[in-house]
Design a protein that fits this description.
It contains no helices and 24 strands. With about 325 residues, it is an all-beta fold. The protein has a single domain (about 1-329), classed as Tachylectin-2, Chain A (5 Propeller). The strands form five sheets. Strands 12, 13, 14, 15, 16, 17, 18, 19, 20 and 21 form a ten-stranded mixed sheet that branches. Strands 1-24-23-22 form a four-stranded antiparallel sheet, with no helix packed on it. Strands 2-3-4-5 form a four-stranded antiparallel sheet, with no helix packed on it. It is globular, with a radius of gyration of 18 Å. The chain starts with a strand and ends in a 7-residue tail after the last strand. This is DUF4185 domain-containing protein.
Length: about 325
């Protein structure tokens, strides 16, 4: 993959009060705009300082995807991207000290958008997860009441990605927030997405896989951020493979496909800072891997994050693009 442009940072998102931020899960709003949800955000180019909020939402012009997404607005008053959810960092919520709330994925079903977030004590420490809803194209969000404890399914239901199918179900892969766990698969009727009791796992019991069994790890490994999207005739599962320090794309006929046998393409590789080359897909301290709406198999666009934890800059989201190989079609 090749780098298209920086999506956040100085000279790009200053007008929105965004100097440093990461993630950038994306969907298309009912009104056709791109909606990107970012994580911990600060006014200066780095981590820390004034203007700490998470998550924040930016709106983009879908016509600009090919050449580099152009942001057209944000949540909040004026151009400043305000925090999309009503809480205070490092405050007590439901009897627990909450450091921050981090988005994992956002989708659109009909005229409603759904945002899944992790309510965290800190990085890798999840109190619980919950779903928020927007009925005004991502301009405002409200709690749905759907939530799960951080140790649900042994801690493998913290960081998730989801995508509606043509069969009335939303399919979801999930893992932990510690980047040391494999993947579980779930599904839920689209109209019951905010009913935790309606979710069903994909599990192996008595010699066969079936829905409704306790979920079985569908792919072993050490994974971080995930993104499941239907692109043309395939289900693409893009993931940050923390164990192998790279971003991979799995090409599935269906979410229940055997993940050990489907085509798997490494599209970006992690590297040391002095060896990185964005033109050849070598990115230092990379993570995140979110598919941009409007992508095709020949022109797949991803939002990738980068954080120099030693110097605290770069701390930004970037857009990369490339074609999947023939065997992944």
């Amino acid at each position: 993959m090749r780098k298209i442009r920086n999506l956040t940072g100085p000279g790009v998102t200053d007008e929105f009060g965004i100097g440093g931020t990461d993630l950038g899960v994306m969907t298309t709003a009912p009104d056709g705009r791109l909606v990107a949800v970012f994580g911990d955000t600060f006014e200066r180019a780095g981590v820390g300082g004034s203007g700490w909020r998470s998550p924040v939402v930016l709106f983009g012009d879908p016509a600009t995807v090919r050449t580099g997404i152009v942001w057209t607005g944000s949540t909040g008053r004026g151009r400043y991207a305000e925090q999309a959810l009503p809480y205070r960092h490092d405050s007590i919520i439901r009897g627990r000290r909450v450091g921050t709330v981090i988005p994992t994925d956002v989708i659109t079903i009909g005229g409603t958008m759904y945002l899944h977030v992790m309510v965290c004590a800190g990085i890798g420490r999840v109190h619980w997860t919950e779903i928020h809803r927007s009925t005004d194209n991502g301009e405002s969000w409200t709690r749905t009441g759907a939530n799960w404890p951080g140790d649900h399914h042994g801690g493998l239901f913290q960081m998730l990605t989801w995508e509606p199918g043509d069969d009335g179900y939303v399919y979801c892969f999930s893992t932990g927030f510690q980047r040391d766990k494999g993947l579980l698969l779930h599904r839920v009727p689209a109209e019951l997405i905010t009913e935790p009791g309606a979710w069903r796992g994909w599990g192996f019991r008595r010699g066969a896989w079936a829905w409704g069994n306790p979920p079985t790890v569908a792919l072993t490994g050490a994974y971080g951020e995930l993104c499941l999207r239907r692109v043309e005739n395939r289900w693409l599962l893009c993931l940050f493979d923390a164990g192998d320090y790279r971003v991979d794309v799995l090409s599935l006929a269906h979410p229940t496909s055997n993940l050990y046998e489907v085509p798997r393409t490494t599209v970006l590789r992690g590297t040391a800072w002095h060896e990185e080359n964005h033109a050849t897909g070598r990115v230092a301290q990379l993570y995140g891997s979110y598919i941009v709406p409007g992508s095709t198999l020949d022109d797949l666009h991803l939002v990738i994050s980068q954080w120099n934890t030693g110097r605290n800059w770069p701390y930004r989201a970037m857009q990369f693009a490339g074609a999947l190989p023939r065997e992944a079609r």
